Fold each of these.
Amino acid sequence: MEQGAGKRIVVIGAGIVGASLAYHLAGKGADVTLIEAEDIACGATGRSLGWINATYAGPDPIAQLRGAAINEYRRLETELPALKIRWTGALSYGASIDDIAQASATLLPRAEILAREPNLKHPPQQARFAAEEGALEPAPATHALIAGAQSFGARLLTQTRVLGFTLSGTQVTGVETTTGIIASDIVVIAAGIGTPHLTALLNASLPIAAAPVILIRYKTQADVVRGIISNPQMEVRRSADNTLLAAEDYLDDTPQNSPQAIALRTAKAIQNELHGIMSIEPESACIGLKPVTADSLPIVGFLPNVTGVYVCSIHPGVTLAAIVGRLASEEIIDGQSSAALAPCRPARFL
């Protein structure tokens, strides 16, 4: 607590990444203000499937981060009872056996696949099962992290847009907002797809694109899916309120590929894949915009051209929020540079 005591830190962005940063920084004694242009979890976080997916097929520069993601969420569960995670495991198939073998998961035969997901109509001969993986409800999890930060004294300002930054030479000294200037020693930018606009105000151009995905919520029979299922026909899980969640790729803006049209097509695919679905009705279908960099790796670290600005742009945000929140807080407060974050530095683009 002592090293962070009194250090004024402004975190921009109240998605799950910004919430994790605020929680970990405030827990180290920093004077944290979390600001959000709209509402909590209103961006990509609120439109995420919530899968804590720590496995990855093929070479992975951030394997160390993914490998630590599960344990960090286990830690957060003990610290924040309101953070609810369902550790159901994740079943994936449809890729080649070579891809499956490269991922750190168990290969299950058909009988064990059906034991885990008995409603599958077309179970494969083999599937990858990651027993340690699970899912959370992203918006409630974000609220739980922010409540934890507030218990350490952090302040939350929603409906507060950033207009610019105040500087003394190359040192950023504050954040100009629609409600006034907030003085700072460190500014942490975790604003998702809004990050490149904010860094551009500091003459730092970061190649972060808005990658659209579609999240669909269905009303259907309860418990047709036990865990997380990912195959070429569907990527689904059961939510805490017993609705069925599905994630789909965004194709284009034509009427036949609107979120509502894709929701109806996906519903038919789900019915074709699962027994026990007598009816399935889309409750909502919305587009989420993920912040994806030019090299598909996160951007985490201090901007090199100014002093006092730390950037956190992460995809996959849900998976990495807990581990990056802890490691970034250690870098910001304790000065402990993390080797796991070395591939993620913003300097590689600047």
Amino acid sequence: MERSLKNVVVVSCGFFFLFLAYGGLQNLQSSLYSEDGLGVATLSTLYSSVLLSSMFLPPILIKRCGCKWTIVGSMCCYVTFCLGNFHANWYTLISTSILLGMGAGPLWSAQSTYLTILGNLQAEKVGKLGKDVVNQYFGIFFLIFQSSGVWGNLISSLVFGRTHSEGPVSQGQLTSCGANDCPMAPEATNVTHRPSQQLIYTLLGIYTGSGVLAILLVAIFLEPVAEKPKKQGKKRTKSPPFWSTLLSTFKLFRDKRLCLLILLPVYSGLQLGFLAGEYTRSYVTCALGIHFVGYVMICFSAFTSLCSLLYGKISKYTGRAVLYVLGAATQLSCIIVLLLWSPTTSQLPVFFILSGLWGMADAVWQTQNNALYGVLFEENKEAAFANYRLGEALGFVIAFGYSSFLCVNTKLYILFSVLSVAMVAYGIVEHLEYRAVCKVFAAKGKSQGEEDEEDEGGKMRTEM
């Protein structure tokens, strides 16, 4: 047990240091590079690249390189993005964002596959249900991983806190904050004041060092893990051909459960894209200033981190359906408030409350979506998690793609609609799974009854 948990902690800490850098940098892109929409264009390109890499690369790299070295190689792509920000322009940011995106799909698929295999092997050792151990491991992972946002955003706020204040926000700018913010308005009043280049270099230096530390940690301390073959006595099967592995991501769409569930990762990407692109810019930066972005996002990261651990522990008692309903109800409530609320500097606690509640809901999507895909598609884990990352990347691409064209209130209506449809589709999958389980139990009961009748008949014949 100690060895298994050690590997969970190592991969979690690796992701902690990597996303301490990337997460903080992502949250600042739309505010730092608002001129000509460079920030959101970078993020849109990044997740378009994630979309492509999720389609093809994960099953191939995981089978050829193993989960550990896929993670290490992918982490290197993230560090190049930090380096690209040192000389930020259209060429450096777009090219390094493409490279990061090519590594992101394999990175997350390898992480999910690694934890699922590790959880199932540990469950087999201790005689527990695989899904319970997998849920627990994902809960530990997301507790450590999501806490990276606390420290990454704290660093950015402390560094940018040295920026001289530009004075109080004018009433004219406040009227364009929140749901009223429209990028295509004739006169843009939502103006971001950029920190000095020296402060930006200081922050990027800290983030780059954190990314390098993540790579070394995983490369040195993480143990490779391989899934045990299902049947030991059979001959060793040949590795599937290249094109079969390549197309395995798409072949899984033959399963209607995957088609129904695809909106869950799409929504996960949409809501995180809204938080990183719109909430940080149109609410926090607009009304409070860029130095408050980190503090507000700390609240989000703290709540999603703690709730990830909580949900991982209580899911075996409540069931995943209860947690999905909780997450949907919380986020739908936040969307309604964001539609109606006009942010002002005098309402500082509201910014933190909303980000905390958003984090509570996000913890459901992060822990339960991963565990759900691992349990339902256990035989095709690599392809299933590749599809999951593909859907999430599609959500990010859509969120950042329309960021420069649609008003914030329109984006909130889209979030509301997609979440509502996604929950209906998820409910259908749970119903299908319930019916399948009932059929299995009914078949077992019928066969057991037939065996009892045969035993009874044999006993009667013996007595006669």
Amino acid sequence: MLERIITALVLVAVVLSCMFATQSHYPMFILMVVAAGVAGYEWFKLMPRKIKKVFKPAAWAYGALTATLSALALYYSDVALLLWSASILTWILSVYWVKSYPDYDGWYNVTLNIIGIVLISAAVTAIYSVWESSPWWLMYLFLLVWGADSGAYFVGRKFGRKKLAPSVSPNKSVEGLYGGIVTSMLIVITVELLYLNMTIAEHILFLILSVLTVFSSVLGDLFESMIKRRAGIKDSGRILPGHGGVLDRIDSLLAAAPIFAAGMYALKLIGVDL
């Protein structure tokens, strides 16, 4: 437990420093590229292959490719938009994959190598884009995801009876999902009432975006759990003592970040400037 707490404190310190401690873009840029590279390395280990043993140079090459594409997308916004679109389409498809598992696992094939690069690159570029809008909007995104996760954990642990997706993640319950939604909605309402000056219609649009973000964070968590279960691996990595791998920490954000960033972009197009 102590190891887990220390790791969490270090992670929070690093991320918050990159978010708030400087106006320079370089610390956040570097953090995103490094995170993409490590997440790519971990993703490669979960992919289907004829030989179970992972060839580490190939995994690092995959991680480097993911980091390179992410760096390009961070620099060229048009590439980021394409990645977000492809990512959102993939997450829509994944609803069926999660719902049908284990009866259908046709999704577990070599195309996951391409999907992994898209999902990871889309997520880190989305996080960076939200941070560019305002570090506080990125904090809001984190709070939504953490609120949904924490609320689901504590409510599910106390009151969980009906399993949400027993074949994918046996510990998650429908009651926990409700708890996560309620926790996140308290955050949304607080932010809307105290910090946002918008019309009723704009408030409704913002609420819809926030709800979609929360549900997508749950989907991201379930999807990564499903891949790990199909690959027969408990944790995506061991780089974070007490927490597993980078993918284990950002699984919810893989889905939530592109949807929230794309939503912010769409709201700006129709004149709602957050």
